[in-house]
Amino acid sequence: MISFEKALDIILSSARYLGDERVDFTDSLDRVLAEDVFSDVDMPPFDKAAMDGFACRREDLPAELEVIETIAAGQIPEKSVGPGQCARIMTGAMIPEGADTVIMVEQTEVAGTERIRFTAAKTTPNIAYQAEDVKLGDVMWRKGQPIKPSHIAIFSAVGCTNPLVAIQPRVAILSTGDELVEPNEKPGPGKIRNSNAWQLMAQVTQAGCIPNYMGIVPDTKEDTDMAISKALAENDVVLLTGGVSMGDFDFVPEIMRKNKVDIRFQKVAVKPGRPTVFGVTEKSWIFGLPGNPVSSFINFEIFVKPLLYKLMGNEFKPVELILPIGVNFTRKKADRLEWVPVEITENAEVVPVSYHGSAHIHAVCLSNALLSVPVDKFEIAKGEFVNVRPI
Ligand code: AMP
Ligand code: MG
Fold first, then answer.
1. Atom of ligand 1 nearest to the CA of 197
2. Percent of the chain with pLDDT over 70
3. How far apart, in Å, are the Cα atoms of 279 and each of 236, 314, 359?
4. Neighbouring C-beta atoms of residue 4, cutoff 10 Å
5. What's the first-to-final CA gap in the chain, in angstroms?
6. Residue of 173, 176, 178, 180 to test ligand 1 pocket, by largest number of atoms within 8 Å of CB
């Protein structure tokens, strides 16, 4: 049995970048950027009014001003503002020559035909200066970083309409088990619904990869062999659940070997999920995740996701919070790193939810984080600070 850290290291050191492609920027949401993106403009591109009001010379205030023109957003000012003058200006419009201040329309009153008066005691310039946000040539977003809605705004603003993005790994998902029926069926005696595959489909999608559901595999060596060989041939990553423990019908590791999978580990000191299997072929990565839904969920989060990120040139950095635990926590064995579904309460305390073990996926639904309990830690006293990962 190897440690969690060692297992993660084995997985990550086997990763290889899968390459990149150009896509239309409107299709780039949640993809990983594969090149640095630079700005081809200053932002703002010119000094512009930050308010609707009157562009004038600060030194003329608070005297009455003559309004010499109206400048709408998108227009070029025609006149230069001289002593005692101002231009009516709209938010986003170009500041005319001669002006250094925009007085807000709310702080003025009419003082005659095309004449106004400043009514406040003081004002800020209310000008957004050229290049104060971004300079031409600045790096806007970095290679290896995910693309979120604000990056789509930036790509739009700098004319990056075809960003280079990492190729998305294609991830096969298979469930093994004669007891499984699909969610749209009512399970007969001895049967349960297949929940792992659909959970993994969602997890793979959320990780920015392409899930490829390949069905339920009956518990025979022949079926397992056919399924693994087809999945390896057609995908970058293969995820199987079930069939990795010590039961009479747990063939997954044996059949992986038959399919030239170089198994890199078969037991990890984590709870849940000890029997997790990981291997590689010349072109693919394959995981045999334990059959229980909580194990499958957590092992995806802690092992599969870091690999998927790295295949896309990104680094998975889980958010880890250090918060006080709200109750005493004890356990009888401490030979494994344990992940416990918990709730981070409104007053930022960590409280384990009612949890009966790795089949109890509903406990994960009712939790909002995973508490990690390190190896050799038997007891955590109420008030002690613990590490939690929001999920
Ligand atoms: P196994 O690792 O195949 O022995 O499965 C361990 C436990 O997980 C058994 O109780 C299975 O019925 C359950 N299980 C296996 N696959 C799934 C699945 N796809 N969805 C829900 N439960 C499963
Ligand atoms: Mg099974």
1. 19
2. 100
3. 12, 21, 25
4. 19
5. 27
6. 180
* Closest-approaching ligand to the CA atom of 289: 1
Residues of the chain with pLDDT under 70: none
Q: What is the pLDDT of residue 249?
A: 84
- How far is it, in rounded angstroms, from Cα 87 to Cα 67? 5
- Residue ID of nearest Cα to ligand 1 atom 14: 291
- State what percent of residues in the chain have pLDDT above 90: 98
What is residue 321's predicted lDDT score, i.e. its pLDDT?
A: 98
pTM over 0.85: yes
DSSP-derived secondary structure letter, 207 = T
Q: Determine the pLDDT at residue 314.
A: 98
Tokens 């971004």 appear where? 134
Residue 188 tokens read as 């007969």
Going by C-alpha positions, the residue among 131, 133, 161, 138 that lies closest to residue 39 is: 138
Q: Which of 191, 250, 292 to mutate to test the pocket of ligand 1 (most atoms within 8 A of CB)?
A: 292
C-beta of residue 7 within 8 angstroms of C-beta of residue 265: yes
Domains of the chain, earliest start first:
4-17+168-311 (3.40.980.10), 20-38+135-166 (3.90.105.10), 48-128 (2.170.190.11), 321-390 (2.40.340.10)
317 in Cβ contact with 302 (< 8 Å):
no
Round to whole Å and give the CA distance between 141 and 38.
8
Closest-lying ligand to the alpha carbon of 292? Answer: 1
Q: Three-class SS of residue 101?
A: strand
Residue with tokens 């109206």: 70
From atom 11 of ligand 1, which residue's Cα is the shortest distance away? 291
CB of 197 within 6 A of ligand 1: the answer is: yes
pLDDT of residue 246: 87
- With a 6 Å cutoff on the Cβ, whether 279 touches ligand 1 is no
Find out whether the beta carbon of 245 lies less than 6 Å from any atom of ligand 1: yes
**Peptide bond just before 125 cis, omega within 30 deg:** no
pLDDT (0 to 100) of residue 340? 98
Q: Whose CA is nearest to atom 3 of ligand 1?
A: 242
Q: Which ligand is nearest the CA of 244, by number?
A: 1
As a whole number of angstroms, the distance between CA 147 and CA 20 comes to 14
